[in-house]
Amino acid sequence: MHLLHFMKKKLRKEIIEIRNSIPSLERKKKDLRIIKKLITMPEFKKAYTVLFYASFRTEVNTIDMMKESLKMGKRVVLPKVDKDRHKLNLYEIKDTGELSLGYSGIPEPFLSDERLIDINDIDLMIIPGIGFDYSGNRLGYGAGYYDALLFSMHEKIPLIALAYEEQLVQSIPSEHHDIKVDIIVTDKQVIKIQ
Question: Which CATH superfamily is domain 2-192 in?
């Protein structure tokens, strides 16, 4: 277990350095290519309620994807960290201007009981990650928030990861209980995991 933790930590550092080295203008071009791929996917087209993550730092930018989804009439949902319970609460947003900096500087929705959404009302989940492999394994940030959220789902829904091609690696260290993503959308390809 200790070796696995060390391997993940080392891989996180390496992939983040690679992702951070992509020039800003190049990242914007890649983001546009990823958006175009995502919004034409059948899984995305048929989903009504979509859980996004709010990108920060050098992650694939999701703000324009959320704006496009709202224009398409979709319900856009975002997570907000509940540190005390070590979980993500999900809230619907009507506009990307409803976000403010929250946990670790990540943009989060405002608290609003009437906009609280149950994980089992989500049709499609777009989840963040530092790196991914071709088997659908995901390397997260290590806090376990998304793992807990994924384990709380009653039914299987499509899990889509967005990544720059540079974030793909041959193998992510994983354990038997790790939940894999179903699809990885990069600036160059759409990988459907079998």
Answer: NagB/RpiA/CoA transferase-like (3.40.50.10420)
